[in-house]
Structures are given as structure tokens and as C-alpha cells.
Protein 1
Amino acid sequence: MSEADVVVVGADPTGLVTALGLARAGFRVLVADTGRDGIASAYCAHDWSVLPGLDRLGVLDDALRAGFASTRWCLRVLRSGERIDLDLRVLDGITPFPLTLHLEQAALCRILEQHLAIESTARIERDVRLVGLAQDDAGVDVILDGGGAPGRIRADWVVGADGIHSAVRRHIGLGFPGYTWPERSVVALIDGDLAELGYAGTTFQVDDRYGAVVQRVDDRRWRYTFAEPLTLPVDRVAERIPEALRAVGDEAEYAVLEWHSARMHQRSAERYRVGRVLLAGEAAHVTNRMVGHSPISAFFDAFRLTEALSAVLGGHADDTVLDVYAADRRRIFHDHAAPLSASRKHLISQISDHDRLETELEYYRRASADPGALRDLLLFNRELEGRSPLDSAGR
Ligand SMILES: Cc1cc2nc3c(=O)[nH]c(=O)nc-3n(C[C@H](O)[C@H](O)[C@H](O)COP(=O)(O)OP(=O)(O)OC[C@H]3O[C@@H](n4cnc5c(N)ncnc54)[C@H](O)[C@@H]3O)c2cc1C
């Protein structure tokens, strides 16, 4: 007899969304995480496409109360001063939430955790590290180190939502092929009045030297994400931030509250399922941390995996639906999330040729002027949702 239907390793967005979905469906879930709270400068602008899923989970109202909604996205071309505005309200009637939810990832996770705490079949163990996995035909032995959890837990299924350095992925023998960009991303969380300078809720600042993604966190705080070559010394990132933020003004205009730098990768596990162990979110795939396709894909992984695991645990489908989940999410990463992320990063910070840049910008100018073209551009993110694993298998 297993002690949990599912052990979810990792209590950040992917793990918490999966755990909450499973607990709401009545399944016994244990979530295990090494840490306590996320980093304030982690992601904060949640795409319209994931909001219906958060609503179905019953957390969107709380999230909107804790954060705020914005409907404007803009491109700001630094050299010419051109500004291209894109208004999400063209999605009125297509989605109930034509907006971006601005809320720090850590705050969203706290809301998810509060909802999880109400579920009698769910439990979160903090300060525990997954150190081993052994599976057979009937279940998985999960070996945890630290905290109050027993060292060994028997589960029917395990979800690895433990991020880019996933221990789950390693323990099931999967590599993480792909490549590392020759740049690192730097996120500076700053206090300043960037709205006054014309920044929208989300702004792609297009420039081959000062390119950045700028996102509003709340009334005063903004996330300013840029890329810099890996050849620059990592121990002197802080000294270079004022120069990278030149477009905002001199240092008197803002205060850097915290910053975080990381190497940028484009990688995917060879498979997202090995027996009774499944991968989701950044444990499964990662792309550059500039433009937000990692978190969008992570939410959709969690929604789809919840559907598939609930159907299997509830006896409504056989486990081939988990193969469909695994194959479909991997295909979507390779066919959509990875190329789109790479091309957006390229547009924001890497095009020095004037004609090439004009061609790329024309697409956004057309979208800004033509609601139909803008809808097509925005609806692309639905490709990241993919199909329900239950549509085509095991039913
Ligand atoms: C500082 C920062 C800035 C970011 N900025 C951007 C951005 O600008 N654009 C963008 O697209 N994305 C960005 N991201 C990435 C985005 O937030 C991720 O897509 C998202 O965090 C994916 O979530 P996840 O739940 O899959 O993994 P993670 O958020 O990495 O969560 C993994 C969880 O697993 C836990 N864990 C790890 N190992 C173990 C173990 N052995 N045992 C138990 N628990 C374990 C960790 O403590 C963590 O809570 C950023 C992330 C960070 C941290």
C-alpha cells in the first residue's frame, strides 16, 4: 500500500499547480522541497493564456487581488525612439481574461500553498531534499533527506518539478541535451518610476546594446532583465548594472533592490516519462529566461499532467495518457517554445543590421495597427497549451 498517490518534488509554480490540481481531484499528494520561499526577482508577468487554468484551480481571484492586471505590452526601439503598442483587449470575447497578471512568482506560490493547505489529502514538506528514487512495476520508493518527512516514502507516481538542476531527472538516468547561450541573464529588481519614462506593464526594449525586458512588479518595483556575454566576470555583475540600465537614467533615478544572474540554456530531457516518474516545468525543459516562455510552458505542463494523472489514478484511462503527455509536451517545447523564445531574445538584443531590424519590427507594427494581426500574434501562445492527453489515448 502506497503512502501517497503522487509525490511531487519541487514546490515552485510547476509543483504547486500540479499538486493542487491533484489534491482538488481527491488524490493523496506529498510535495517535497528543499527550500522555503522563492526569489523576489523571479518571474512576475503571467501570460493571459495561463489565466483560465489558474481560474479553474480557483486561485485566480486571489492572485488578481494580490497583484494587478495590465493590458498593455509594448516594444520600445531605443535608437529611433519608436514605440509600438500592443493592446491585449483585442482578445475580448476570445478569452475571459485578456490581460497579463503581474504578481511575483513567490507571491503566486504563497497563494497556491494556502489553497493546498486547505486540502485534507495534501501535505507539503519543506527543507527536505530528494536523494534517491527506486521504482518497480507497482510504485516508486522516494528517498528524502532532512525535515520531518520519513526518509523513504512509497508512492504510486512521482512528478519531478524540481527545476533546471533536477535531481529527479538525474535519478531516472536522463540527460539534459541542448546548448548554453554565450550570455548570462541578469535580472535587476529596481525601485523607480519607470511608468513616468513610458514603460508599459511589459516592455521589450529593443537595442543591440541596451536590449532588455522590463516588467512592472507593483507600484514602485520593476524587473529589468538583460543579457551580457559570459566572458564578462560574473563576480562584477553588480558593478555593470548601472551601465546596463542607462536607458532608465542615471543611478539617482532608481535603486537596485536585488539582482540575480544565471546562465541561459536551451535544453530538454530526452523523455518526460520513465516508468512511474514524470517530469514537468524546468526539470523537463528550459529556454532563455528573458521572454517568459519557460513559465508559460511550465504552467501548461502542470495543467496537462494533472489531467492525465487524475484520469489514470481515477481509473478513467490507462497509463498511455501519460505517454501522450510526455510526447506532446516535449514536441511543443521543440516546435514552439524554444524557437519562439530564441527569436524574441534575438529581436530584443541581438539585431544590429538596420534592414533586418526593420523587417522584424514590421510584423509588430502591423499587429499594432490591425486587430486581426494582433490576435494572431497573441494567440500563438495557445500553441504552448497543446491538446489534452485524454483527447487521443487511453479512453
Ligand atoms: C531569479 C529568476 C528569474 C527568472 N526570470 C525569468 C524570466 O525573466 N523569464 C522567464 O521566462 N523565466 C524566468 N525564470 C524562470 C521561471 O521562473 C521558471 O520557468 C519557473 O521558475 C519554473 O518553475 P519550476 O517550478 O518548473 O522550477 P523552479 O522554479 O526552479 O522550482 C524548482 C523547485 O524544486 C526545488 N528543488 C530543487 N531540487 C530539489 C530536490 N533535490 N529535492 C526537493 N526539492 C528540490 C527547489 O527548491 C524549487 O522550489 C526565472 C527564475 C528565477 C529563479
Protein 2
Amino acid sequence: MHRFNPEADIKPVWKAYAVPYENKNTVLGALQYIQEKIDPSLAFRYGCRYRRCGLCAVEINGKPAMACYTYAEDGLRVGPLSGLHLIRDLVVDRKSFFEELKKYSLYLEPSDGHNARGTPVMEPEQGARLRSCLECLSCISRCPNRSSGEGFGVPLIYVRLAQLHFDPRDRKDRLAQAKLLGIDRCRNCNKCFCPNGIAIIKDAIKPLLGG
Ligand code: FES
């Protein structure tokens, strides 16, 4: 388990904890056990406990995952999402990203009954996947363009834009907006892994590139 207390530690440390095994216990259940029975100072986030709020995203064995629906097993290495500012233990800064997001006008801009740009066709499964975004920030944590300073808009923004692009009520040109945000710089590296099953390149980036 990744531990870091900015008031006491110079750098993060990894600590092992013994948690009783119960069938179908989740990683979130194990974290709660540690906090309740072993070390109340362990910091982590969660909300719904059922794949709805996106708050429990962590890295499990180096890969983004949701703690509330990943089964606990022996030897798991649980850390915070990488690439985001670490606040404490497993908690990363979400607030600054959502503050920044407000700048981009990623909200439905309804047409007055006629959608001038037409309605692009979307596979029903693709729509269901896009709508399943929990804003857990897993996809942006691994994006190499995010920290490159090249003005790339990051995967979560493109998932939002794709939701709007396929929405028949929306009138704004989301392809043009994606271009302005630097979607052409996507390296197609597929590091923007979504633990909730969105195929970000296929479902969002490619359609916004006109593919
Ligand atoms: S606690 Fe809400 S998605 Fe995991």
C-alpha cells in the first residue's frame, strides 16, 4: 500500500497490511478494513461503493482500476493514480482539473429544434460506453501528452466532446472544438485506459477526428 503524509514524509513508502480474506471482498473493502482496524490515518476516496461516482480510482499493480469493483487478493499493490498531484496516501488532486474543465464549455448547447450540423451515427454499444464515463480521471493520469506542454486537451475532455458530438440536441461543432484543443496531437498510444470499459481512442478520439 502506498503511504505518504506530506507533513511527515520526505517521499512515499510502500507498506504491507494483512487483511482477512473474505470471499468477494473488494479492494475498497480491504482499504476500509485497514482504516477501521489497523491505521485510521490511511487516506483514500470513495463515495457510492458501486461503480457510480468514480471517486475510488486508484492504481492496482500499476494499472488504473476502481477499488469498489476490483476483488481483493493476495499481494495487490495499491497506489494513487499516477500523473496527478498527490495529496496524501491514495488521494490525488481532482479539484484543479475540474476547475480547469470549466473553461471549455463542455455542456449541451441545444438547437432550436433544428440541428444544423446533422446528427452523426453512433453504434448503441458505443453510446452506452461513452455515457458510462465516471470522470474517475484514470484516463488522464496516463496520458503522455498531458504533461508535454503541447496544449493537448486530455482524454476525458474528448470523451465529453464525443458525448456532445453524438447528441442530436447539441448544435455546437464539437469536431472544430476538439481540433482547437489539440486532438491532432493524440499519439494513438492507448495509454488512456478506462477502467469502466470506454475504448477512448475508438469511441471518442477517432470520431472527433472525423474517422
Ligand atoms: S466508490 Fe463510487 S465508483 Fe467506486
